[in-house]
Structure formats: C-alpha cells, structure tokens
Amino acid sequence: xxxxxxxxxxxxxxxxxxxxxxxxxxxxxxxxxxxxxxxxxxxxxxxxxxxxxxxxxxxxxxxxxxxxxxxxxxxxxxxxxxxxxxxxxxxxxxxxxxxxxxxxxxxxxxxxxxxxxxxxxxxxxxxxxxxxxxxxxxxxxxxxxxxxxxxxxxxxxxxxxxxxxxxxxxxxxxxxxxxxxxxxxxxxxxxxxxxxxxxxxxxxxxxxxxxxxxxxx
Length: 217
Fold this sequence. Notes:
The chain contains ten helices and six strands. By secondary structure, the protein is an alpha/beta fold. Helix 1 runs antiparallel to helix 4, helix 3 crosses helix 4 and helix 4 (84-97) packs across helix 6 (123-132).
C-alpha cells in the first residue's frame, strides 16, 4: 500500500519552457556553432545528465555549479561567445519561475497522500516557485542533502530517511528514466511520466499524465 509519494520537479511539475528558457536558447543559438534549438537542448541536457552522474559524494557539485561548468564547456566545444553570468541567471530563472503543468496542479491539489518533491535543484528555488504558484508539498528533498543527483540511489534513500517512509510504501513519479531507475534501485515503486509517448513499447511502467497517477494510489 502506497503511503508516500515523491514527485520530480523539472519536467514533471514545471515545464522546460518560459521566457528565461527562450532567451537562453536564443542567445546560445546566436553565439555558438549550433543553430538548431533542438540540437542545443540535446547538447545541454545530455551533457548535464552525464555531469550529474559523474559528480557524486566526494566530487559532488550542486546544480548551479554544474550549469556554470557546462556553460564553460560550451565555450570550448561549441564556440559559445556570451556573458556566462547572464546565461546562468536565465537558467536559475527557469528553476524559480518555470510554468507549472496543469496536471501537476491537479495532482498536488487532489493527492490524498503526503507528496515530497525530490529534485536535483536547490530547495530555495523550488520552494520559491511552488509558493508563487500556490502549490504545497510535504517537503522538498534536494540532491544537496545527499550529495548525489538522480539517478544515484543515495538521493532516493535520503528522501526515504527524511520522509520517514518505507521503500515498498513509497511511489516515485518522474519524467526521466533516471527518476524511475534510481527509485527502483532504492527499493521503491516507480512510475515514469511519459506525456509524449517517448517510452512506448519500452516495457517500463508508464503513465501519460499525473492525473492518471491518482488512480494508482
């Protein structure tokens, strides 16, 4: 029986969209050797996921530090000529102001169980955005607390410790394979949120919306 829910933040609660994201992509397009927005997003998030996996425990770096390191890498790899500090502030603006998915609002309003946000982002940015949007969670569990980003199971174990929840009674919902894989490695139940059908036929346990997840509780 599920007693606690963990919910991913970026891509699950908030959209990877908004004026900050649009401006950041526009400036990287203009100031680098990549001229396709989708290629920029693939380059950025592919490299970020690799860095999150590599910087772990003794070598841990928080999301702000990783993103600045990634901007510096962009200077070398794709010839980015831009003010890195300004781009970093746009990136932080996404975490602080990202638009919320409608099904996330419904889920947080209607879920009968305690919902904790489990995220690689810093608590202060997530908390600020949730408060702006009038959303409430039982707590926010950040990679900073475990010195480990998803998909490392240490972050999920830290979440269980903070929530005081048993693995088998805890459900993780997130939009990436890393959300699901890390939760399963920690002994939790996990649903992969697949709004666009990316994982169709993968054999993974998926849902197409967070409202659908309410039926699983």
